[in-house]
Amino acid sequence: MDGRPAGLALIDGRAHELRVLVALASGVPAVALAHVDVSPAADAWTAWDFKADIAGGIVLVALLYAAGMWRLRAKERFSLPWRQAAFFGGLAALFLALQSPLDALAGHSFFMHQLQHLLLQTVAPVLLMLAAPQAALVAGFPAPLRRAIVAPILASRPVREVFGFLVRPWSAALLLVASLYAWHWPAYHDLALRDEPVHYLMHITMLAAGLLFFSCIFDSRPAPLGARYGARINALWAAMTACMLLGAGLALKSTALYPAYDELGRLWHMGALEDERLGGLIMWIPGSAAWVPAFLVLLRRWDTQEARLHDRRRRGIAPAVAATATANCRLGLLIGLLALGGFVTTLAIGWIATAAHR
Predict the structure, then answer these.
(1) Using CB atoms within 10 A of its CB, is residue 44 exposed (0-12), middle (13-18) or buried (19+)?
(2) How crowded is residue 89: how many other Cβ atoms within 10 Å of its Cβ?
(3) C-alpha distances in Å from residue 260, one per residue of 33, 111, 194, 195
(4) What digits encode the pLDDT tens for the residues 286-303?
(5) Are the beta carbons of 256 and 272 closer than 8 angstroms?
(6) Cβ neighbours of residue 144 under 8 Å, at least 6 residues apart?
(7) For residue 346, what pLDDT band results from cuts at 50, 70 and 90?
(8) What is the pLDDT of residues 157-215, one digit of tens each?
(9) Where are the domains of the chain?
(10) Helix locations, 100-223, DSSP H
(11) Is pLDDT above 70 for 310?
(12) CA–CA separation, 39 vs 77, rounded Å?
């Protein structure tokens, strides 16, 4: 026995592929509800509508994590302050997206809706998965519940295989992009605004897709247990580019696409086209900027792994492969420069497009 709480051993090896299941099963997506009812004439900036199911879900996840961190406090890697700050920052992003006045404003403004989705699908998942909270969340469950329910679910072969497939880089990237594009198809987007259960489904799927994708991107296990860093970076680049293209298309279009906002009443008497173009710019430019930290973290981890491998080869612990570490580091630097160049180009095009439409 290694002294860990029951069920924690299942996080190792192949069972670690269920990292997202822990977050999903412990209540994170249950907080992803649809917009509160608010009249556009009302003071939406003060519409703090605290709902027991949303706030309760966030508090439950926070308590599970805190309890798990306490039980794992002797292990150095679980006591890093930045991990804890990232996790609670992710929960704060969820709270702002779903409980603050932003939720009320999003039901009557396309560009405010994009700010909410940015928090829900990118900012919160990045922070939550960067914290690598899976082991702490499992440890946070009471021991009887962990042994009777959580551990058997994590050990289930069908569940492991399904989630193992979903958290592969290209599978997770496809789910993320598909959820974004599907919910911005005008018919589905308007339906979600008019129908509360459909809007609930929108938020659930966008949050879940973000958690799946960034759990794969930030997986601390090297290949072959985890995905290769090259595959992760390629998937991250492809997904970011797809999101940028959607944002650019919405920002540069000449026809309003979402009449449901007019039916519900757009805020501040904004024109439909102006509102939707601004929403596209938010998805395009701030949305792109939100991906940059993920690139930087991934490149840093890749470089650290290659440095360790190079040191092991130098000491004769691992087989020597000529110039592999150097080549990989150069490739990582090249991809990083491409990402930076793409981001700068996006900012420039966005500025030019904005100036042209004034």
Answers:
(1) buried
(2) 18
(3) 19, 14, 7, 11
(4) 888 888 888 888 888 887
(5) yes
(6) none
(7) low
(8) 888 888 888 889 999 999 999 999 999 999 999 999 999 899 989 999 999 999 999 99
(9) 8-356
(10) 101-106, 110-118, 124-130, 134-140, 143-145, 151-155, 157-166, 169-183, 186-194, 196-217
(11) no
(12) 48
Q: For residues 233 and 240, what is the distance between their CA atoms, to the nearest angstrom?
A: 10
Both tokens assigned to 64: 């599970």
- Measuring CA to CA, which residue among 115, 123, 109, 94 is closest to residue 29? 94
Pair of tokens at residue 75:
């292990």
Mean pLDDT of 6-31: 42
**Residues 284, 346: contact at Cβ < 8 Å?**
yes
Angle between helices 324-356 and 292-314 (to 10 degrees): 170
**The predicted structure's pLDDT at residue 328:** 58
- Number of alpha carbons in the 13 Å side-chain half-sphere of residue 250: 29
Q: Do the beta carbons of residue 109 and residue 267 sit within 8 Å?
A: yes
Q: What is the Cα–Cα distance from 136 to 124, expressed in whole angstroms?
A: 18
Cβ-Cβ contacts under 8 Å for 62 (sequence gap 6 or more): 88, 91
Least confident of 243-247, 272-276, 318-322: 318-322
d(CA 287, CA 279): 10
Q: Are 21 and 152 in contact (CB under 8 A)?
A: no
